[in-house]
Amino acid sequence: MELLKLKSEINFVGKSRLAFIFSGILIAVGLVSILVQGGLKYGIDFAGGTLVQLKFESAPRIDDVRAGLKEIGLGDATIQEFGSKNDILVRVERSEGKLEEVGTLIKNSLEKNQGTGKIIVERVEMVGPKVGKDLREKALLAIVYSLAGILVYISWRFELAYAFGAILALLHDVLITMGAFSILGKEFDLVVIAAFLTIIGYSLNDTIVIYDRIRENLRRRGKEALSVIINTSINQTLSRTLITSGTTLLVVVALFFLGGEIIHDFAFALMVGIFVGTYSSIFIASIFLILWEAQVRAKKA
Predict the structure, then answer these.
(1) Which of 3, 104, 207, 277 is 20 to 30 A from 30 in CA distance terms?
(2) Are 210 and 239 in contact (CB under 8 A)?
(3) Topology adopted by domain 31-42+131-300
(4) Under CATH, which number does the domain 49-127 receive?
(5) Cβ distance 286 to 162 under 8 Å?
(6) Residue 98: what pLDDT?
């Protein structure tokens, strides 16, 4: 199936300088945001503490909820709406006691002091600080191990230059997506880590398709300049890339708007990842091969 009926002859290599500048700006803005905010905004999985989701009969005022929590020593809790105005998330740093006791304590205190009717405790999650730290370390190791495995696999299937290009593109995707989470103040938790690993796999698939075509064209048209072969290869696979990215994006957009608050951040990460993953496969992973070849020639000279 071809989305582009006419033969495309877009000069991707010629636009690579602008693409590198654009990527550098996006990554720099994201890193500055992370530094200014003192790091990522960790969710309950990584920061530790207790999360309680409450459903009210009528929409409560956030200030009234906070006042009710002060009476039981939870005045510093983070309170936010979750989906509808009747659903409230309460996050506290404390993680002592049993789950049922924490939920019941909050429920009884708010029902006593608020005129919002009956309150239902939808869920209670509790993570200790040591467990949160351990989860952060394991999540980071999961990403590092996946990148190391990709480096080995692509080095074996292609060449070392291809492997470094793919890893550079994946790091580019992760940094930009991470920066988007920091700028928008979204929480970073295990669900988001799962989204990051999904982005890595998706972006790598796009990259390998282009790499296969580049290698095939190098065998057939090896006398041509590498920049010409890379341009040709990207244009030849462009229809497939756009179809794959477009159909995947339709599903992710549906999840983002219709999937509910639980997977909202997961879908958001995938939306950003699909865009930057497709972009990096073309402008980062592929163009890197030209830079690598130029460096090799310079050393030989």
Answers:
(1) 207
(2) no
(3) Multidrug efflux transporter AcrB transmembrane fold (1.20.1640)
(4) 3.30.70.3400
(5) no
(6) 58
Supply 75's token pair.
């005045």
- Do the beta carbons of residue 293 and residue 228 sit within 8 Å? no
Domain ranges in the chain are 31-42+131-300, 49-127
**Kind and range of the H or E element at 247?**
helix 226-258
| Token duo for residue 104 | 């019941």
pLDDT in tens, 67-81: 777 777 665 667 777
Q: Is the dihedral of CA 264, 269, 270, 276 positive or negative?
A: positive
**What averages of pLDDT result for each successive group of 10 residues across the chain (301 residues)?**
60 91 95 91 78 78 74 67 75 62 74 68 75 81 86 86 91 93 88 88 89 90 85 90 89 87 87 93 91 83 68
H/E segment holding residue 119: strand 119-127
Q: In angstroms, how far apart are the furthest CA atoms of the chain?
A: 81
